[in-house]
Specification:
CATH class of the largest domain: Alpha Beta
Shape: globular
Distance between the termini: 22 Å
Order of helices and strands: EHEEEHEHHEHHHHEHHHHHHHHEHEHHE
Largest sheet: 8 strands, mixed
Low-confidence stretches: none
Strand content: 5-15%
Number of domains: 3
Mean pLDDT: 95
Number of strands: 10
């Protein structure tokens, strides 16, 4: 039995995702998605809750959907990729497929190898680029081109960059998975679709089962949590902010000051952002603060990976897959959340669900009242 895995957000699921799932289904016996739950890696709440996004995934072709722990989602691309690959490996998946702006995975391997080894030549070029005032991503690109020569710009695109992290995460695990890159061909972006939804404009390039559902849902974005974010930061001491996993170099002082001056999350980000701390990194820090993600949880994830696999949804008729996963998995498959609520990492997932529900005007406790999605 050949099992394929996809790391996803489906925020929301669009035509490109549908095309990817359709292709991967033809290469596999079953397709398993590991999905960001209530929050996404950009440091924002998902636009819609994880249960409806799980339903979309199954309608589009997924056979099972598992949740990536929220504490892993709110890390850098490297931490997110590492936890996702570890989760898929722990479930016994054979292949992993990811969208990329490149034609194949071969275009990413030289850059992945360079980032993994970080020779002195790369380090010196990177530090030199930072001193010239380049941002962190631009400095890494300049250093890579210094070492490898001119490279296609596509290898530095967002999905290709995430693919490089998947490659290196798999390498660190001893390469138990076979990775495949699928060229992205859809013209519209997920960000563009989200903007249309928030502006109440017509939505293009999403399957009918998605567009029909969205019309009755309340979308959520980071502004939905604006006051909660400011309240949380203003209640924290500078020392407490400094202990958040992604804080270093005294940034806690700047963030605390910005929280005292800001009137909303947009002004907070404007006041706090620097070259070393771009908006995306700060938003992840804000989510770490809101969800009470401490360094011990993150350290455990980095050393051991996710210690459980939370099952969100299973396709009707895919019971054979669940039996196979229970044989292959090296970590517990969680289908009854109440039994795991005392696990520190799982407790973050529960807080994330409750916080998302608050932003969406829903009651708390959905992790315990919503059944596994079956479609």
């Amino acid at each position: 039995m050949r099992l394929s895995g996809i790391v996803c957000e489906y925020n929301p699921l669009h035509g490109g995702h549908f095309k990817q799932l359709s292709f991967v289904k033809k290469q596999s016996d079953f397709v398993i998605c590991v999905m960001s739950g209530s929050f996404v890696q950009r440091g924002e709440p998902a636009m819609f809750d994880k249960f409806i996004r799980t339903e979309w995934a199954i309608c589009a072709g997924a056979d099972a959907v598992f949740e990536i722990p929220a504490a892993a989602v709110e890390q850098s691309a490297q931490g997110y990729a590492d936890a996702s690959i570890r989760l898929l490996a722990s479930l016994g998946v054979d292949d992993v497929w990811f969208g990329s702006e490149t034609e194949s995975i071969d275009a990413l391997i030289p850059l992945a190898t360079l980032y993994r080894s970080e020779p002195e030549q790369f380090t010196q070029a990177f530090q030199s680029a930072l001193k010239r005032g380049l941002s962190y991503p631009a400095a890494r690109q300049a250093a890579a081109e210094h070492c490898l020569g001119s490279l296609p710009k596509t290898v530095f695109s967002p999905n290709a960059t995430l693919g490089i992290h998947y490659i290196n995460a798999n390498h660190r695990l001893g390469s138990p998975l076979t990775l495949h890159a699928l060229p992205r061909t859809l013209g519209v972006s997920g960000a563009g679709i989200r903007r249309s939804i928030m502006a109440n404009e017509p939505i293009k390039d999403v399957p009918a089962f998605v567009s029909q559902t969205i019309s009755g849902l309340q979308p959520v974005d980071i502004n939905s949590l604006s006051q909660a974010i400011l309240y949380r930061l203003r209640c924290m001491s500078i020392q407490q902010i400094g202990r958040l996993p992604d804080i270093s170099e005294g940034f806690e002082n700047r963030l605390s000051s910005a929280a005292g001056q800001a009137t909303g999350v947009s002004s907070l980000l404007s006041l706090a952002a620097t070259r070393r701390y771009p908006v995306s990194r700060i938003k992840r820090i804000l989510m770490q603060a809101l969800l009470c993600i401490d360094s011990s949880i993150v350290q455990s994830l980095r050393e051991n990976g996710p210690g459980y696999a939370r099952l969100l949804g299973l396709r009707v008729g895919a019971e054979k897959l669940l039996g196979e996963l229970q044989q292959r998995a090296t970590i517990p498959i969680v289908s009854r959340p109440a039994k795991h609520k005392d696990n520190d990492c799982f407790a973050v997932d529960i807080r994330a669900t409750d916080l998302h529900a608050l932003a969406a005007g829903l009651p708390a406790g959905l992790d315990f009242t919503r059944a596994i999605v079956r479609v």
